[in-house]
Every structure is written in structure tokens, then in C-alpha cells.
Specification:
This protein is of the alpha/beta class. The chain has a single domain, classed as Alpha-Beta Barrel (TIM Barrel). It is built from eleven helices and ten strands. The strands form two sheets. It has an eight-stranded parallel β-barrel with strand order 1-2-3-4-5-6-7-10, surrounded by six helices. α6 links the parallel β4 and β5.
């Protein structure tokens, strides 16, 4: 049984959101999600957006914030989270030209400084992985290990993505256990069992989601976040299937 709230990463519904952001949020609430993880704010001011989600009975679980914003306009992003009632800012992605070992070392300093400022404002900074952070560095550790082991655990947490960990040949449950108490957010995805290893609705693929959820319970995950990067079904149908699967547990 899942006792923690379940959010939807709004990137999954990016096409619908671009056409009608507010109505897309309404549909997310109608499907039955407890909250949303933002990947942009639909052009709305934070107070207006807070009124919208309050009206629909949704909570702001977290926000994916581009690294450049974390570097240059962090104060503004913190203000937005406080207005939305969100407790988490997530660094979501590194561009290809920012993935050298030197870049990761510089990133660690950036995350520590940003995480300290976030913590002073009762916001938690998290790092979200893809597969490329599992490449080995010169000391034999993966870039993701480097990030999590060289940042201050009080200031920088993880949003582990179970699909990308699996895609890179890792066991996501083991990563959750390894960084227990440091994984407040968890991206739940599934993967097809064929050679394509494509994104799949939860419960229809081969990822050991029961193991993931068991590990998440022990790690005191705060929010489970459903995301499907690309949907072959209608995206609303895809996320409905995934939520139904989680609730069936």
C-alpha cells in the first residue's frame, strides 16, 4: 500500500499544457493525482498559480528548475516555491556540454551553495538523474555517486529516476537503500521488456516496482512522482493507467 502522496510531472503533458495549462491541471486533478511537479509555470504568476491548484485540490510537490536559474535567479525561484507551497527545487538535467568530470566538480560547488540557501528558506534542493550520470569518473565512481557523495547531505538530496537507473544497468531499489533518508522524491516509470526498452505505463513493463516501493517506504520518500517522457497512448490515458496501477497496490 502506498501511503505517500502521488504527483504527476507536468512534462508528461507538455503538449496539452502548452495549449491550455489551467485546463490540463484540472484534468490532472480529475484523474486523481494528489499533486503536480512543475516543469514551468504556464506563464502564470506564482500567486495566481497557487490559487489555480488550490481550486482544483492539487498540491505543488516540487518544481524542476533549469540549472541556469539555480545559478542566477535562485532567490526568485525560492520565492515561487514558497508562494506555491512547494518544498522542493529540483535540478532536472545537464546539457551535453556540461558533462565532463570538471563540469561535475563545478556542479558540486553550485549545488552546495544553492542547497545551503534553499535550506535557509525551508526549501530542499534535489538532483534528478538520467542515465549519463552513471558513467564512471577517473576515481571509479559514477558521476551520480560523485554528486551525492561530495555534496552536503543536509543541503542536497536526490530525486532518483527508476527508469534511467535501470536503463543504465543499475538496480534502483539498491540506490534508494544506499541513499536512504536522502531521497524525498522518486520518479516512478516503467520500461518495455523488449530490446527497445521504451517508456511504459506503470505495471506494464519490466522494472521491479514492488522492490522500488518497498525501498521507498523504508527511505521515507515524501512524494512519488509519475512521469512518462514519451507516451504512445494519449498522454492522459497513459498517466491514468499508471495512477490506477499504483492505487491498485
Amino acid at each position: 500500500m502506498i501511503n505517500q502522496p502521488i504527483a504527476l510531472q507536468m512534462y508528461t503533458l507538455r503538449d496539452a499544457s502548452e495549449k491550455d495549462f489551467i485546463n490540463t491541471l484540472k484534468k490532472v486533478a480529475e484523474i486523481g493525482f494528489d499533486g503536480v511537479e512543475f516543469a514551468g509555470y504556464g506563464g502564470l504568476e506564482a500567486k495566481e498559480l497557487r490559487n489555480v491548484i488550490d481550486t482544483f485540490g492539487l498540491r505543488a510537490a516540487s518544481s524542476h528548475v533549469p540549472l541556469n536559474n539555480i545559478r542566477h535567479v535562485l532567490d526568485k525561484e525560492i520565492e515561487i516555491q514558497l508562494a506555491l507551497g512547494s518544498k522542493y527545487i529540483v535540478c532536472p538535467y545537464l546539457e551535453e556540454n556540461e558533462r565532463t568530470e570538471k563540469d561535475y566538480i563545478q556542479l558540486i560547488d553550485t549545488l552546495n551553495r544553492a542547497g545551503e540557501k534553499c535550506a535557509a528558506n525551508n526549501i530542499t534542493l534535489c538532483y534528478h538523474n538520467h542515465d549519463f550520470e552513471l558513467e564512471k569518473m577517473s576515481d571509479g565512481r559514477s558521476a551520480l555517486q560523485l554528486i551525492l557523495e561530495e555534496t552536503n547531505p543536509d543541503w542536497v538530496k536526490a530525486e532518483l529516476d527508476v527508469y534511467w537507473l535501470t536503463y543504465a544497468g543499475e538496480n534502483p531499489a539498491e540506490w534508494i537503500k544506499r541513499y536512504s533518508e536522502r531521497t524525498p522524491l522518486l520518479h516512478l516509470k516503467d520500461m518495455t521488456t523488449d530490446s527497445e526498452r521504451f517508456f511504459a505505463e506503470l505495471g506494464t513493463g519490466g522494472i521491479d516496482l514492488n522492490g522500488v516501493l518497498d525501498a521507498g517506504k523504508s527511505a521515507h520518500v515524501d512524494w512519488y512522482v509519475v512521469e512518462q517522457d514519451i507516451c504512445r497512448l494519449d498522454p492522459f490515458e497513459s498517466v491514468s493507467h499508471s495512477l490506477s496501477y499504483l492505487k491498485s497496490l
